[in-house]
C-alpha cells in the first residue's frame, strides 16, 4: 500500500472512559497520521496511559469509538489487533529465553500461502529465526538470543521488549513510558535509539510519557493532556512557542507566567508597562495570562522597556539562569553574560516573545445550593455567606457562589481549615502560585497563594463569609 | 590476641542448629545404626532379607503406584480448581471458597478416614485400591490446591496482557504462559501429596484390603514384631524414595522451563 502523508491510522472519536464513577478520559477525539511519532504527554493520572490501553484493546471505552485504518476496532480483542505494545515494566516472560521471548508472537502468526490447505500457514523455523535475528540486530543485541532474561540489565531488557514488539511488524507501536525505569544516561541513549528505529521501520509510534523533555526530543507531534482532556496538539516547536494556555506553557519547558490585561489588539499590559505583542482578538481590558520564556528576556538591550534588580545568578554551563525582581514579581531570564546580585538591569521583550492566553477562569464560580439561612455547602461542608442587599434565598435554591482566587486561605494542617482537599496543579505566576484544589466531593476550587505548595499536598481551606458572593443560578 | 568476633546474626541461628542436631542428625544416625548394627556388630542381614524378598519389592511398587495415581489425580483436579478460583474477581469470594476447601483439614485425619470408611460401607462401596486412592485424593487435595493457587495469583497481569498483545488468544496464553509459570506450584503440590501418600499407614489400613498392602503397613508390622532393624531398613528405603521423587520432580520442572525455577526442596 502506498504511503501518503495525511493518511489516518488511528482515530479516536469522543472517547470517554469511566473508572468507578471517575472520568479518566473525558471526551477525547484524536487522529494520528500514519508513520508519525506521536507523544501523549501529561502528569500521572491525566488519562494518557488509559488512552494507550484502549488503543491496544486492554480497556474498552465507556463511550466513543476507536478506528484502526478506518475500521471500528472498539470491541476487537487485543490479540486480533495489529498493534503491539512495549510496557513500562518490560514484562518479558521469565520462563523463556531472549530468543523465545521475541519469537513468541511470530510462532502464533499465520501468513497467506496458496499451496497450504487452509490458504495460510505458520511461519517456518528458518523464517522465525531470520526475523528474530534481524530484530536482535536492530536493537544492538545480536548475540543475546540464548541468554536468560534475568541475566540482562534493565536497558537490555527494554531493548528485548522493543524487539519482541517490532518483530511482528505491527501497524502501530504503543510505548507506555518505556524508559522510566532506566537511569538518565541509558534513557538518553534509548531516546536516540527509538528515534532511529522509528525512522528505519516507518511504523507509527504512539509514546506515552510525563517527561516533557523526552517528548520534545523524540516526537513529531505532542498531545498535551490534563485531567482526561486534551489541552493542545501540535509539533514540539509549536507547543513550546505557542502554548494554548498557562497550563501547557508551564508544563512544557520553563516559563514566566504573568497576569496582565489586554489593552487592545497587539498591546498588552503587565508589570505596569505596556508591551507590543502579536496577539489579538481579545476584549478590550480582558484579564489574560502572559507567558514569556526565560530566553526571550533581553538584558540591557538598545531599547529597554523595564527595569529590575538581579536577585540570584546560577551558572548552567552554557548560560546563566538569572532571577530578576521587579514589582514583587520574580522573573526568570537566561543570558550568556553574568550579572552581580543587586545590579539594576534594563530589560526588553520582543513582541513575538510575548504569548498572550485567555485566563482559564478569573474567579471561582461554584455551583451549589442553599441549605439554611445564608448558608451554602462547599465540598459537603456548610458555609455562611453575607448576602448582597436585595437578594433573597430560600432553602434548596440552586445558586452560584463566587469566590476570588486570592480570598481563599490555605493552611498546612487540614484540621485548621473549614474544608480540606488535595492540590493537583500548581503554576507559578511570578508573584504568587495558582493552585487547583480538588475537594473530597470531586469539585475543584482555584486558589492564589503566596506560598510554594507541593502537588498532592493535603491542605485546609479557610474562606471568610464576606468573601463569598452568592447569586441565583440563572439556568435553574 | 585476636578478639573472638561473634556474628550476632549467626548467634540467633544457634537454637535451630541445636534443634536440627537433636531431632534430625542424631535420629538419622540412629536409623543407620539400627539398620546395619545388630547384637554382633555390623550386619547386612536385615537389609539383605528385605531386598531379596520379592513381596517387599511388590509392596514398594504398589505404594509408588497408589501414591502416584493419587498425586497425579490431585493435579488434574487441583490445577483447574485453583485456576478457576484465582480468576474470580472478588478476593473475598476467593478466600471463602479456599476456606471451605481447606476447612476439613481442621478435623483429625484419622477421624476423616474412619468417616469415609463408614460412608463407603453405607453405600456398599468396597474397600480396596479405588477407595484408598479416593481417600488419598480427598485428604491431600488442599496440599495441591494451595501452592498452585498462590503461584497463579502471583503471575503478573502484564504477562497475560503481553501475550494477548502478541496475538495469543486466551487459550494459547493459558498453555504458553499460565501453565509453564505455574509449574513450580504444581511440582510443590505434587511433592506435598506424593510424599505423605507413599508412606501412609492408617489410610491403607482403613480404606484398603489385602491387595493394597503398602509399605507403611509393613513398617507397622515390623514395629509390632519389635523388629527395630527391619523397621529401620524400611524407614531408610522410604527416605530414599522420597529423596528420589524430589530429585525427579526438580528435574521435570527444569525441563519444563528453560530457566531454573525453584520447586520444593
Q: What is the fold's blueprint, element by element?
A:
The complex is a heterodimer of chains A (476) and B (265).
Chain A: E1 8-19, E2 22-33, E3 37-41, H1 48-56, E4 63-68, E5 71-72, E6 83-86, H2 98-108, E7 110-112, E8 120-122, H3 125-138, H4 154-166, E9 172-176, H5 184-201, E10 204-209, H6 212-218, E11 221-226, E12 229-234, H7 236-241, H8 246-251, E13 256-264, E14 267-270, E15 273-276, E16 286-292, E17 297-299, E18 306-315, E19 320-326, E20 329-335, E21 344-349, E22 354-358, E23 364-372, E24 375-378, E25 381-384, E26 398-403, E27 408-411, E28 419-428, E29 433-439, E30 444-449, E31 458-463, E32 469-472
Parallel strand pairs in A: 3-10, 3-11, 6-9, 9-10
Antiparallel strand pairs in A: 1-2, 1-4, 4-5, 7-8, 11-12, 13-14, 13-16, 14-15, 16-22, 17-21, 18-19, 18-21, 19-20, 23-24, 23-26, 24-25, 26-32, 27-31, 28-29, 28-31, 29-30
Chain B: H1 8-12, H2 14-36, E1 37-38, E2 41-42, H3 45-51, H4 54-87, H5 91-102, H6 109-122, H7 129-153, H8 157-165, H9 170-198, H10 202-207, H11 215-224, H12 228-256
What does this structure look like?
The complex is a heterodimer of chains A (476) and B (265). In chain A, 18% of the residues lie in helices and 40% in strands. With 476 residues, chain A is an alpha+beta fold. In chain A, a hairpin with a 2-residue loop joins strand 13 (256-264) and strand 14. Chain A is globular. Mean pLDDT of chain A is 88; it is low at 1-5. Chain B has 265 residues and is mainly α. Chain B has 12 helices and 2 strands. Residues 258-265 of chain B have low confidence and may be disordered. Classes of the chains: A alpha+beta (476), B mainly alpha (265). Chains A and B meet through strand 6 and helix 2 of A and helix 8 and helix 9 of B.
